[in-house]
From TrEMBL:
Occurrences of domain PLAT (ranges): 2-114
Originating organism: Chaetorhynchus papuensis
Main location: cytoplasm
Protein's recorded name: LOXE3 isomerase
Stored InterPro entries: LipOase (IPR000907), LipOase_C (IPR013819), LipOase_C_sf (IPR036226), LipOase_mml (IPR001885), PLAT/LH2_dom (IPR001024), PLAT/LH2_dom_sf (IPR036392), PLAT_LOX_verte (IPR042062)
Tagged with keyword Cytoplasm: yes
UniProt-annotated location(s): Cytoplasm
Pathway noted in the entry: Lipid metabolism
Binding site for Ca(2+): G17, D75, A76
GO MF entry, a single one: oxidoreductase activity, acting on single donors with incorporation of molecular oxygen, incorporation of two atoms of oxygen
Highest taxon in the source lineage: Eukaryota
GN (gene name): Aloxe3_0
Length: 229
């Protein structure tokens, strides 16, 4: 009998925890464990500890499988990382840093950097192939217009996986920044201007109020069309 000590960490962002069921499977070079349920109720920024009992030594742990399922309501979970301590004391780290949504299974490789030629085990070669196919499916490109850079082949960011989209916090900050900048430009008379600028000095009186940015910075970040000079 071999016992592995496992620590599962949840991210510390808002709504990272979940009430859904999470279980884990350890995959080693000699075999894999049975699917073991992680203690219930995951809270943001907290860790869960459990023991995984195996009939034999699994050898070096090369990857883990995280299984998520639910009985009733969907509740996404953000896994930060998983740490596995083998019976001989060896610590294996599995950085995850992604959302698990719906009924799904996610495979996470051990955190040591490896190249394709380093994958000696067939299970690792198959995992790399599946990961590549999944990325090719997620990142499909199209031509928006002739001469323009290519863009993602989606009609809305809502079609993207949650791990590709902006985080809720970042999106909220970005929206708040746009509202603040829009209000500043409105109060300074910039947005309502219907005539051409008389000089660069006149423009500087407007842009000197925008957090110290120069004209070039404002021209680059502002999404609104500028009146011609």
């Amino acid at each position: 009998m071999a016992t592995y000590k496992v620590t599962v960490a949840t991210g510390d962002m808002v709504e990272a925890g979940t009430n859904n069921f999470i279980s884990i499977t350890l995959v080693g070079s000699y075999g894999e464990s049975h699917q073991t349920t992680v203690p219930f109720l995951f809270q943001p920024g907290k860790e869960k500890n459990l023991s995984v009992h195996c009939g034999q030594d699994l050898g070096p742990i090369v990857l883990i499988r995280l299984h998520k399922w639910r009985l009733f309501l969907e509740d996404a979970w953000f896994c930060k990382d998983v740490r596995v301590t083998a019976p001989n004391g060896t610590l294996y780290r599995f950085p995850c840093y992604q959302w698990l949504e719906g009924v799904t299974t996610v495979e996470v490789r051990e955190g040591s950097g490896k190249k394709l030629v380093d994958d000696k085990l067939q299970i690792l070669k198959e995992h790399r192939s599946r990961e590549l196919a999944a990325r090719q499916e997620a990142y499909r490109w199209k031509n928006f217009a002739q001469g323009w850079p290519r863009c993602l082949n989606v009609d809305s960011i809502l079609e993207l996986d949650s791990n590709i989209q902006f985080s809720r916090i970042r999106a909220t900050n970005f929206t708040g920044f746009l509202i603040f900048q829009g209000a500043s430009h409105f109060l300074s008379g910039f947005l309502l201007r219907r005539t051409s600028w008389n000089s660069l000095d006149e423009m500087r009186t407007i842009f000197s109020r925008t957090q110290g940015r120069d004209i070039g910075g404002c021209l680059a970040c502002c999404p609104l069309p500028f009146p011609r000079i």
